[in-house]
Amino acid sequence: MGIGIFGEEGTRAAQVANYAIGEFCLLWKLLLYHGRINYMRVAEMILYFFYKNMVFTSVQLAYCFYNLGSGWSFWLSWSITFYNMIFTFFPVVIRAVFEVDIILKPTKETFHELSKGIHEKQILYSYYPKMYFISQHNTLFTSFKFFTWFLLGIVQGMVCLFITLYAIGDENDTSGSNSYGIGFYFVEISAYTSVIIVVTIKLAVNVKHWTLILMIGFLVPSIGSYVGYTFIAEVFESTAAYHSMIDLLSMPIFYVIQLLAVGGMFCVDFFLFSIEATRNNFQNYLKIKTLKDQRLSETNLKEFMIEMVAPGEA
Fold it and tell me: Which long-range contacts (C-beta less than 8 Å, at least 24 apart) are formed by 264-270?
């Protein structure tokens, strides 16, 4: 990556550089603020992208074992098409563009004062470069984090499937609305709703600073478009799931399934958080114990040296 500075020498360097700045003091924000933020945005976007697709794909994979490899697709064609194209596309992109964890006023006066060391928050801003270590040591996008999100998507996808599969419909009942022929679309739409809600809430929980743009991006183009499409599809009799959503909304079990799916997501997250906290506490305990043993060894050594020196002095 090349950075050029507009100066008295001309603009040749700035014209061929990837980034151009007007003053040298702006290099501080470009590298230590924007560089860090962009690394965080890109790393988390990639992790979440694989996560949301594994939630969606693991449902179909698990259903293949459930239906004994009959080849029947669990997802409808519109579900597959619109999942990445509309329903889960906008939140991840908007977060990757507007997500920040540190708010820094981008005024020119701020950087002039920082470069001279006279800013009123000079001590606070002086710690900002130290937070650049997350990209220097690649702490966000590691193999461990990647496979953690990957496996998390598989587990939460299966939770959404089997909670819905055993809560709605009965393949042995062909007497009416609970029959397998009609109930399958109930299961599919209910599971699809659970997946959309789970992956959206999962992303929302990891947002570090909410703004109006993020709120609109999560609600309108994602959840709003899904709700709008499902009700529009109810009008056309040619759709496979005709009138299914209206029937689902009249069933209390539908709302229970959504709560259980979201609760299952938080249970898995809490379990992983507990393991991480336990590991950190154990490591801290070992560090403290090692320091205490080291201090005791140093104290014993000093006492031993005093005992060795004392007879000679006498």
Answer: 264/156, 264/159, 264/160, 264/163, 265/156, 265/159, 265/198, 265/201, 265/202, 268/152, 268/155, 268/156, 268/159, 269/152, 269/205
Distance CA 160, CA 198 (A): 9
Helix ranges restricted to H, the chain: 12-16, 27-29, 35-66, 77-82, 89-98, 108-116, 122-126, 133-136, 143-165, 180-205, 212-218, 225-233, 244-249, 252-313
Say how far apart CA 200 and CA 52 lie, in whole Å: 9
Residue 68: left if φ>0, alpha if ψ -120 to 50, beta else—which one?
Answer: left
Which tokens belong to 247?
Answer: 């029937």
Determine how many CB atoms are found less than 10 A away from the CB of residue 60. Answer: 15
- Domain limits, the chain: 45-278
Q: Determine how many CB atoms are found less than 10 A away from the CB of residue 34.
A: 13
| pTM over 0.85, yes/no | no
Q: How deeply is 12 buried, as exposed, middle or buried, from its count of CB atoms within 10 A (0-12, 13-18, 19+)?
A: exposed
Ramachandran assignment for 263, one of left (phi > 0), alpha (psi -120 to 50 degrees), beta (any other): alpha
Q: State pLDDT tens for residues 130-180.
A: 777 777 778 888 888 889 889 899 988 888 888 888 887 554 443 344 444
- Residue appearing with tokens 């540190």: 102
User: Could you report the per-residue pLDDT of 271-286, keeping only the tens digit for each?
Assistant: 777 777 777 676 676 6
Q: How far apart are CA 119 and CA 96, in angstroms?
A: 30
Tokens of 78: 């519109």
